[in-house]
Write a structure and sequence with these properties.
This is DJ-1 family glyoxalase III. Pfam families: DJ-1_PfpI. InterPro entries: Class_I_gatase-like, DJ-1, DJ-1/PfpI, Prot/Nucl_acid_deglycase. By secondary structure, the protein is of the alpha/beta class. 31% of the residues lie in helices and 20% in strands. It contains six helices and nine strands. Strand 8 and strand 9 form a beta hairpin. The longest helix is centred in the N-terminal third of the chain and has 13 residues.
């Protein structure tokens, strides 16, 4: 099985690339799928970097993923929020009790908007934390809610830690440590 990473025009490039790169370093197959409304695979990310997805979301031949990951960035998170197939896949993933992960604006803009946070403890970019209830908000850089099979994180600076947490839950701690070591993380 593989991990689906959604990307759209205006997605945060550091988050997107850090997630894909870290998972690939762990030997996890990744499908980077564009949610571009025009059906294109190439997107311009939030800071103008051009990214090319493996496929457009509409071209997916499988819909069975170990995890589905949503990078942040605006307006990328809004585009993903407004992509019916992306939300259908995220809802199915939650219903199956499989891992979902979102970083930066995406926990609020995508998941909360569609009722996909439930009562999970989550974090997000500090600029969006006021949208979460005090009971739900955690201010750690990366938050794993085991009961809801949800990992959230704050932003570009925590993207590698976020991706390593995905490696931990999808594989194990030892692999996450082996992947992190040559990356020279603090």
């Amino acid at each position: 099985m593989s991990v689906l990473v959604l990307v759209a025009p205006g997605s945060e490039e550091i988050e997107t690339v850090a997630i894909v790169d870290t998972l690939v370093r762990a030997g996890i197959e990744v499908v980077l799928a564009s949610c571009c409304p025009a059906g294109e695979r190439q997107i311009r990310a939030s800071r103008g970097v051009q990214l090319v997805a493996d496929c457009h979301l509409d071209e997916l031949t499988i819909r069975d993923f170990e995890a589905i990951v949503v990078p942040g960035g605006l307006p990328g998170s809004e585009v993903i929020r407004d992509t019916p197939l992306a939300i259908e896949l995220l809802k199915a993933q939650a219903a199956l009790g499989r891992w979902r992960a979102a970083i930066c604006a995406a926990p609020v803009v995508v998941l909360q908007h569609h009722g996909l946070l439930e009562e999970a403890r989550v974090t997000c970019h500090p600029g969006f934390q006021s949208h979460l209830s005090a009971a739900q908000l955690a201010t750690d850089r990366v938050v794993r809610d085991e009961a809801h099979r949800l990992i959230t994180s704050q932003g570009p600076g925590s993207a590698i830690e976020f991706a390593l947490e995905l490696v931990r839950v999808l594989r194990d701690d030892a692999l996450a440590e082996r992947v992190a070591a040559p990356m020279v993380l603090p």
